[in-house]
Amino acid sequence: MKFKTLAILTILPILFFAACDSKSDKNQKTTINSAEKQFSLNTINNSQINISLNQDKINLKDINNKIVLLNFFTTWCPACKVEISNLVQIQEAYKNDIVVVGILLEEFKTNEEINELLKSYNVNYTVTNSGEAFELAKSLGGIKAIPTTFLIDKHGTFFQKYTGLVPNEMLEIDIKKLLEK
């Protein structure tokens, strides 16, 4: 009986993380509608991130010459919470080269509610809480699963899209490729 319980408890986490499908699709290209689009996302610190999309380029207006990680997440998603911890580590390790931006895909959350979660994870990167996040996600081809993360090079070109929980090792390999360019 104990063996069955132990087996079930061992298999469940494996199935959970496998369901997130963190494998990236190298052949999947992020497509953006051809007309330029502008987005102004409010952050939980009452500032704004201005983003423009044009064909296969993305421009974060106040972020120049840095690699950008855009992470679409929700507060209720267990895989998102694990990824928050990973992104905190990435932001700390590459703070001079990378900007991580968390984009909340959830309605009716107050900044105070979000801050409570972020404080528990010692989040050291910018997080948005804006209705325009849904329009941005749609313009990026839609978000099929959460978390979804986009890795963008210093020139605003999409380098990689990750669906599901991404291991830090995978992110670091791709980040190092971009830093070597």
From TrEMBL:
Residues 30-180 form the Thioredoxin domain. The keyword Signal applies. Residues 1-19 form the signal peptide. InterPro entries: AhpC/TSA, Thioredoxin-like_sf, Thioredoxin_CS, Thioredoxin_domain, Thioredoxin_ResA/DsbE_sf. GO terms for molecular function: antioxidant activity; oxidoreductase activity. Keywords: Redox-active center, Signal. The keyword Signal applies. PROSITE patterns: PROKAR_LIPOPROTEIN (PS51257), THIOREDOXIN_1 (PS00194), THIOREDOXIN_2 (PS51352). Gene3D superfamilies: Glutaredoxin (3.40.30.10). This is Protein disulfide reductase, TlpA family.
